[in-house]
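Entry for the shared binder. Reason: the reviewer on the internal report wants the predicted structure included alongside the sequence.
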Amino acid sequence: MLGSLPALRAQDSLAVPGRFGLSLNLGTLPGLELNYAFKPRLTARLSYGYLQYKPDFLLTVSEQKLNMNGAVKMSVPTLSLVFTPSGIFKIVGGAAYITRGKADLLFRAIENYEVNGETYTPDEVGEINYVMDYSGTVAPFAALGLGRTVPKRRIGIGVELGSFFMASPKITLTGTERLVSMSEEASIIENNTKDWKYWPIVNLKINVRLD
């Protein structure tokens, strides 16, 4: 019986008590993460990221000035596994469900437009509404990072660089006035954007140990 004590101690040294942590992401996809370290080098992670951005600026296309405004919204829960092979270096793999991933943009001329000797005001030219939508799709996720997901001390910091691998977006294009024919170009643009499948993520992480 005494001979079995070294084996028991070896097993105990490999055992890792359940450790929970919470992470705050600050970067291209802000959000929160709940972490559970169930093995010495493995941590399960449940994340939620949310981004809302309202662009409003001027563009110059074919020497014509356009105003672009609208909204970009992303809502992304992700389930992943974090492997820490050594030290603070980590490898992350998982999958996300894009509950909302949409860019809804409006383009409108801000000055008169001349064509074939005719001059048209911005109201006569019309506007274009461009929508790119990834909502309702599943996206694998992979990343590399530095920093312990569940820190040894109460608080730690880290950084993570990765990407979602998205499905092809659905494109909607509608025009008004003289631009009404642009609606016919939606299928062409959708075909040209079918390879827009990478959504890079760079986050600074503040990690807090909860137990």
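Summary line for the report: The first strand starts at residue 19 and ends at 27.
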